[in-house]
Amino acid sequence: MGQTLTVEQVDFFRDNGYLVLHDVLDPALMAQTRDAWWDAAPSEVKRDDPGSWVGAFPDSRFTWKYRDRSREPWMVELLYGNPKLQAVAKQLLGSNLKTPERIRGIYCVFPDTDTTPKPAHFHVDAHAFHLGVVGYVDDVPPDGGGFTIWPGSHKHFYHTFKTAYTFNPLEEEREFWDTDTYRNVLQIDPVHTYGSAGDVVLWHHRIGHGAGHNRSRRVRQAVLYDFCRADLDDIQDEPPPADMWKHWPGISEK
């Protein structure tokens, strides 16, 4: 039977904009995912040589987004088809979910040669969706490049857009990042998530987030997907409702 969230978990997600769930993903599909991206990695990045992982892809903040296998049925099954995630998404969003053709892909963060702590940076995603999922397909230690979240920032950002889901800020985009809202979010201490293979992070589409600084000696391996209601295309360009949870029947405004 699919897992559903407790009242306390729903309240935590409503207030903080994210939630970590443990031991969710299928081990066989995670292994297939790891094999797929290691097979596709550049020849100089060797699976059996951890020394080759450090400092890889430095021109892209040590990240590699591998999307070539995103339409594979087993990749879609890993997140969208997971019965526990299906149950949670339907609990929060209702039973009528959009069926995807693909997931986002496999997002890796490689170890940095400079282990000195660095300031964390966030962004808000520009595409329309409801519930984001980051699934760890291998262990992610503390300071290992985990998905980083500014708790509660979804409540700051939600009404700074003209539309409910598309990236259409009230201010000009270049000015959006120089507003009181942005400065208020900067005062929030970010949460750097980490965990074991099979753990997932759920997050609200308007939350400030980013990839953490990987100061470990492991590659952070995560797979991303966005759950959407089937009516997203019809409502995505409407003004954001006063109740930001109007389209989330499983969550009530506090």
Number of domains: 1
Distance between the termini: 29 Å
Average pLDDT, all residues: 93
The CATH class turns out to be: Mainly Beta
Name of the CATH superfamily: q2cbj1_9rhob like domain
Percent of residues in β-strands: 15-25%
Q: Predict the CATH topology.
A: Jelly Rolls
Q: Which consecutive residue ranges, at least 5 long each, have pLDDT under 50?
A: none
What summary fits the major beta sheet?
6 strands, antiparallel
Helix-strand string: HEHEHHEEEHHHEEEEH
> How many beta strands in the DSSP annotation?
9
Largest sheet, order of strands side by side?
1-7-4-9-3-2
SS element count, helices:
8
Radius of gyration of CA atoms, rounded to a whole number = 18 Å
CATH architecture annotation: Sandwich
Helix fraction, binned, reads 10-25%
Overall geometric form: globular
General description of the model:
The chain has 254 residues and is an alpha+beta fold. It has a single domain (7-235), classed as Jelly Rolls (Sandwich), CATH 2.60.120.620. Helix content is 24%, strand content 16%. It is built from eight helices and nine strands. It has helices at residues 7-16, 27-40, 73-79, 83-93, 153-157, 173-176, 180-186, 232-235, and strands at residues 18-21, 63-66, 105-109, 131-136, 147-149, 191-192, 200-204, 209-211, 220-227. The strands form two sheets. It has a six-stranded antiparallel β-sheet. Strands 6-5-8 form a three-stranded antiparallel β-sheet, with no helix packed on it. It is globular, with a radius of gyration of 18 Å.
